[in-house]
Every structure is written in C-alpha cells, then in structure tokens.
Design brief:
Distance between the termini of chain B: 39 Å
Number of domains of chain B: 1
Strand order of the largest sheet of chain A: 1-3-2
Oligomer: heterodimer
CATH topology of chain A: Arc Repressor Mutant, subunit A
Largest sheet of chain A: 3 strands, mixed
Number of helices of chain A: 9
Largest interface: A-B, 24 and 21 residues
C-alpha cells in the first residue's frame, strides 16, 4: 500500500460516509445510523447488525463470530448521542472487514490508523458534508451542530472546525 | 467539477460493486468516461495503475487536486490589481 497523508485519508473517509448517506436518501439531520445498521445496503447483509449488551468494559465493539453475521455489540445504557456516535464509529470496522470492503482495499488503507479513521468516519457519517453544508448555508452556527445532528458536543465542535477548514481551502 | 466527480465516484463505490469490479477488470476507462472529467484527466485516470481500488482513489485524488490547484493559481488576480492608478478600488480606499 502506498503511504497516504491524513488529509487524503480523511477525504476518502468523508466520501465513503457520504456514499452511505446518499444510499439512505437522507436529506436532513439527524442521520438514522441505527436504521442503516438494521437495514443495510444488500452488499452488507452479513456485516451490519446491532446487539445490545450489558458491559462496563467498552462502549461498543464490532465482532464477526465465525460463519455468522458481523454485529456491533453496544452498551445498552449509553446516552442516545453517544450511542449514535459509537455505532457510527464501529460501522467502519464492519465495512473494512466485509467482503466488499476487502475487495476495495479498505483493510490495507485504513487499518494502520483504525481508531482515528473510525472516529473521523463516524463524525462524517453523522454530520455528512452535504448536510453540514446545507446547515451552514441556512445560517447554522457551530453551537447548534450537536443538537441538530444529535451527536456529542465534542464531536460536533471538531466536525464544525473540520468543515470550516475544508470549506476555506 | 473534476473533484466533485471523483467524490461521487468514491461515494458510489461503497454501495455499488460495479465500480470495484470495473477497476479489478482494468475497465476504469468505461466508468470514468461517464463522469465530468476533462479529456486529459480522463486519459490520465484511465491509465492509472494501483494495487487496489482504494489506492487508485487516493492517487486519482492527487492528480485531480494538483490539476485544480494549477487552475486556481491561473485564475488568481495579479498582486498589482487595485494598486495601479485610475482603478476603482484605489479610489474607494482613498474615499474611505
């Protein structure tokens, strides 16, 4: 695999997230990430699933039991915004380990920086460029991003700054 | 428009297996010819070799970004604009 910069990786992740948002036909926030996981694109029928768990060890993790459907195992007691974020984050693991993801070469490209990539991907899936752009054009401000897109405040601030940086280039 | 076309292609590739199938079969020319790339860029992207679709996308991004940066540079106004005598901007600034 060729070495790639963070900017290139983030560009790629933004577009993967946008592809899923386009597939769902989402035209306004919030993006229904749990619907995506429960009714995935046909390519990911055996890769997307959600299982609620009681756990104090982790917020969510993707696992693919041998010859079974891959699923995101998520703590049942998370706040709704946190739950949406961790589900979106673990969706990247489902994608890169899927048959199609491997055929795309996602595994080699994204595995070395998986945690960082997954968090960035999640912020773009929940606050996709198209919807953040529309929000901005309608006069939306940074302080309203978390509430509008139903994501944790810290993620909203980072995504808003990221959007502004890309927009000003 | 080239970057927008590439963005849409990458976005499509996550849910549409035909993109990766075309790449694997060495038929990217067919995919690219339907998109809004210049003739020169179409030729470059059609010839581009990579080990995977993801790698192809990143290299394509480098090509398209470099081409768009050259275009932007050409469109930048001269640093002298507005400083030459008789130009409106100079008058406005003096009035202010």
């Amino acid at each position: 695999m060729i070495p790639i910069t963070r900017e290139e990786r983030q560009w790629f992740l933004r577009n993967l997230a946008q592809g899923l948002v386009d597939f769902m036909g989402v035209v306004e926030p919030p993006v229904p990430v749990e619907d995506l996981l429960r009714n995935p694109p046909p390519l990911y029928d055996s890769d997307f699933g959600v299982v609620d768990m009681y756990s104090n060890l982790w917020d969510a993790t993707f696992a693919r039991p041998p010859s079974q459907r891959g699923s995101i195992f998520v703590r049942i007691d998370l706040e709704p915004e946190e739950r949406r974020f961790v589900l979106a984050r673990e969706t990247l693991s489902a994608l890169i380990t899927s048959k199609h993801g491997r055929a795309m070469g996602l595994f080699d490209l994204l595995l070395p920086n998986l945690r960082e990539s997954a968090e960035y991907f999640a912020s773009c899936l929940l606050a996709p460029t198209s919807l953040v752009g529309a929000y901005h054009e309608q006069g939306g401000r940074g302080r309203g991003v978390a509430r509008t897109f139903r994501i944790p405040q810290s993620i909203a601030l980072r995504r808003w700054e990221d959007f502004a940086t890309i927009n000003n280039k | 428009m080239s970057m927008q076309a590439l963005n849409q292609l990458v976005a499509r590739s996550i849910v549409d297996p035909s993109v990766v199938q075309s790449f694997s079969a060495g038929r990217m020319e067919e995919v690219i010819s339907d998109l809004d790339f210049s003739n020169d860029m179409q030729k470059r992207l059609a010839r581009l070799e990579a080990k995977s679709w993801a790698e192809y996308a990143v290299i394509a991004y480098r090509y398209v970004k470099a081409a768009e940066e050259i275009t932007v540079r050409i469109q930048l106004p001269s640093p002298l604009e507005g400083l030459l005598p008789g130009q409106d901007r100079t008058k406005d600034e003096q009035a202010a």
